[in-house]
Design brief:
single chain; about 140 residues; alpha+beta; four-stranded mixed sheet
């Protein structure tokens, strides 16, 4: 609930969009294309993307150093930009205002990480169960 320091749905959508943009740019590095409308060369399933999203956000990203932008993906915070530099927690760029932070009221980041870590653990445990069942 954003009223109690949680993440708003708008922020969540922008974070997912920035993850997908970042993931596409990684995949494009391995198979570059001049056509911006070309399909993503990554052949990842939605499940694999979900696992990677949970893992990235639960374990690897430092929210105090990152900026999330739907158009650019994950970027380092611009310390010359006072809005980004002074953001206490997560900086999620407003797509309609490059200096706006739609996550400025979010302060329960530890809970956000814990929830994603829990989701990742449950999903990877299920993935392991599925692999074990296929081996039988």
């Amino acid at each position: 609930d954003p009223l109690t320091g949680g993440l708003s749905s708008f922020s969540a959508v922008l974070i997912v969009a920035s993850f997908l943009t970042w993931h596409r740019s990684l995949a494009s590095m391995s198979a570059p294309s001049d056509d911006p409308e070309a399909p993503c060369p990554c052949k990842c399933s939605a499940g694999k993307l979900l696992l990677e999203f949970c893992e990235q956000h639960a374990c690897h990203l430092d929210y105090s150093q990152m900026s999330f932008c739907a158009q650019l993906g994950y970027t380092a915070r611009d310390m010359n930009n006072a809005t980004q530099r002074n953001a206490a927690g997560m900086f999620v760029q407003d797509p309609f205002d490059e200096f706006g932070n739609v996550a400025r009221a979010t302060y329960r980041l530890t809970q956000f990480r814990e929830e994603l870590n829990h989701a990742w653990c449950v999903l990877t445990a299920r993935e392991g169960e599925g692999e074990a069942a296929r081996e039988k």
